[in-house]
């Protein structure tokens, strides 16, 4: 692709401090760097950059920039990351991150990049860039489905307008998540306001970690809600990396039959309750299926022994077919192993993308935040089956065992196994198709003023006047917006709540269908 500027463009990547955010920012950085059209700088705290340095090695052209957060008594530098951070310290981390705004402004003034790519939680970063004439683009690292869900709730939670896709809903025990989406706050500011301002300040596009074959209609709806062109960057799955300390895990897998083993992991930022640990343990035991289970505990609680967290005698009972690993395991390496036939997952978006890439069907066990929405999407696409909790939100071991067996060994699971393999094949065929479109969009923004972010309004209070323009070049198929506008009972004209009467399935709680458990 021709560089219209005659030189490499300088990009500054600035993710939130969570691993689920830093990882896709890093993978996007690698892909953009490989085009030889961009010089990439990635900014984060030393606590996060230390692990990044290990994966990049010495030959990477990506430059890492330290962001030093101001000291808080309860938050020493090694906790300037969400990885292993106790939940009660999350507000302090967000506060410290906000307090680092002047430091980040100095970094911007020193680097003077051609473009800033930033995350959904720090609108002050885009404001600082705009103050010195640097265009900026927000990169949404959660699913497009979740982003569309959030914006629908932000705009329509008080209007009763239904979400236009009945396959995405909240179960009765998940209604608390609707309140969390609308009311969660930190440092005296609602997350809702942060997210909306971040998208508002983004130049004419929004980048999403997705691909249109899975989330096309949700990308169309997000574009409708925000007035921005939604540009997918692809799944951005980390290349398999094997720490020499984890060779034993792969060697253990090598002894198991093809497709006979489930991988059990709930991400780096969620810690299971003792009740969940017990039901999952008994469920795995009852399933009679081989498993690798990664158990994590918050930093500061490392004195907890795995044996103490698990039911008495569990490790002895499953010793020939179960391996419990504390802390970390090479997830992509495990998911890509021929012996793995299922993934018991919380449905964090990076984990979903990895399962899709490697063709591993998902046993969905969502916990909080975006995970219930992602689990519904996994089910809709047909690459996973959800373990539905009891009406009070409790897991039941019998259901865990039944879904594990269905997905991995039962004839009833043949369909989901085939769809997972097909998805993997489709992704291989696509290759780097999305990145070409992303590069084209970013080159147009570099040196071009960014086009309208935060200036003429992005339609966050409703669709901007003049309707929705059909977009080309790398974005979702915006033709779908026409159908969405018809569903909404309007033509996309200016003003109002931008909705009309969206028809959805079921009723209740935050304009989403709420399914009661039987």
CATH architecture of the largest domain: 3-Layer(aba) Sandwich
Helical segment count: 20
Helix/strand class: alpha/beta
The number of E-state strands comes to 17
Strand order of the largest sheet: 3-2-1-4-5-9-10
Radius of gyration, rounded?
Answer: 23 Å
Residue stretches low in confidence (pLDDT < 50, at least 5 long) are 449-474, 477-510
Largest sheet: 7 strands, parallel
Task: Kindly report the name of the CATH homologous superfamily of the largest domain.
Answer: Glycogen Phosphorylase B
CATH class category name of the largest domain: Alpha Beta
Helix content: 40-55%
At CATH level 3, the topology of the largest domain is Rossmann fold
Cα distance spanning the termini: 55 Å
- How many structural domains? 2
Give the mean pLDDT.
85
Structural features, described:
It is a single chain. The chain is α/β, with parallel strands linked by helices and 518 residues long. It has two domains: 9-147 and 189-238 and 431-462, Rossmann fold (3-Layer(aba) Sandwich); 244-428, 3-Layer(aba) Sandwich (Rossmann fold). The chain contains 20 helices and 17 strands. The protein has a seven-stranded parallel β-sheet, with helices on both faces. A six-stranded parallel β-sheet has the order 13-12-11-14-15-16, sandwiched between helices. Strand 4, helix 5 (123-131) and strand 5 form a beta-alpha-beta unit. The radius of gyration is 23 Å and the shape is globular. The chain starts with 8 loop residues before the first strand and ends with a strand. 50% of the residues are buried. The model is unreliable at 449-474 and 477-510 (pLDDT under 50). This is Glycosyltransferase. Belongs to the UDP-glycosyltransferase family. Its EC number is 2.4.1.-.
């Amino acid at each position: 692709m021709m560089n219209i500027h005659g030189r490499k463009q300088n990009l500054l990547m600035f993710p939130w401090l969570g691993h689920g955010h830093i990882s896709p920012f890093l993978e996007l950085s690698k892909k953009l760097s490989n085009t030889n059209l961009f010089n990439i700088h990635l900014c984060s705290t030393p606590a996060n950059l230390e692990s990044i340095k290990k994966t990049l090695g010495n030959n990477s052209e990506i430059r890492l920039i330290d962001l030093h957060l101001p000291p808080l008594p309860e938050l020493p530098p090694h906790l300037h990351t969400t990885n292993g951070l106790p939940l009660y310290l999350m507000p302090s981390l967000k506060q410290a991150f906000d307090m680092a705004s002047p430091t980040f402004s100095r970094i911007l003034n020193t680097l003077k990049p051609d473009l800033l790519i930033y995350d959904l939680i720090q609108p002050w970063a885009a404001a600082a860039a705009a103050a010195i004439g640097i265009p900026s683009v927000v990169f949404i690292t959660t699913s497009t489905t979740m982003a569309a869900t959030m914006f629908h709730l932000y705009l329509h939670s008080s209007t009763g307008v239904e979400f236009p896709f009945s396959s995405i809903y909240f179960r009765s025990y998940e209604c608390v998540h609707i309140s969390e989406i609308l009311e969660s706050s930190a440092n005296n500011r609602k997350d809702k306001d942060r997210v909306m301002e971040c998208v508002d300040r983004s130049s004419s596009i929004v980048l999403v970690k997705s691909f249109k074959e899975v989330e096309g209609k949700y990308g169309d709806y997000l574009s409708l809600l925000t007035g921005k062109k939604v540009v997918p960057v692809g799944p951005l799955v980390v290349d398999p990396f094997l720490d020499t300390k984890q060779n034993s895990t792969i060697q253990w897998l090598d002894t198991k039959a093809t497709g006979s083993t489930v991988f059990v992991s709930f991400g780096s930022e969620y810690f299971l309750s003792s009740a969940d640990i017990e039901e999952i343990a008994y469920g795995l035991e009852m399933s009679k299926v081989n498993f690798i289970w990664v158990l994590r505990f918050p930093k500061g609680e490392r004195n907890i022994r795995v044996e103490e967290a698990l039911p008495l005698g569990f490790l002895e009972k499953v010793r020939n077919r179960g391996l419990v690993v504390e802390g970390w395991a090479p997830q992509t390496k495990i998911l890509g192993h021929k012996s793995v036939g299922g993934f018991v997952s919380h449905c964090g978006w990076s984990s979903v993308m990895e399962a899709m890439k490697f063709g591993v069907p998902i046993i969905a066990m969502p916990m909080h935040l975006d995970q219930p929405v992602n689990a519904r999407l996994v089910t809709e696409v047909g690459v996973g089956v959800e373990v539905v909790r009891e009406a009070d939100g409790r897991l039941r071991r019998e259901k865990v065992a039944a879904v594990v067996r269905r997905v991995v060994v039962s004839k009833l699971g043949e369909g989901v196994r085939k769809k997972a393999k097909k998805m993997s094949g489709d992704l291989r065929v696509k290759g780097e198709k999305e990145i070409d479109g992303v590069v084209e969009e970013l080159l147009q923004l570099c040196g071009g003023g960014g086009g309208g972010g935060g200036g003429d309004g992005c339609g966050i209070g409703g669709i901007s006047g003049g309707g929705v323009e059909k977009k080309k070049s790398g974005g979702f198929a915006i033709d779908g917006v026409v159908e969405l506008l018809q569903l909404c009972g309007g033509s996309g004209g200016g003003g109002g709540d931008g909705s009309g009467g969206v028809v959805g399935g079921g009723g209740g709680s935050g304009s989403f269908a709420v399914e009661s458990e039987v």
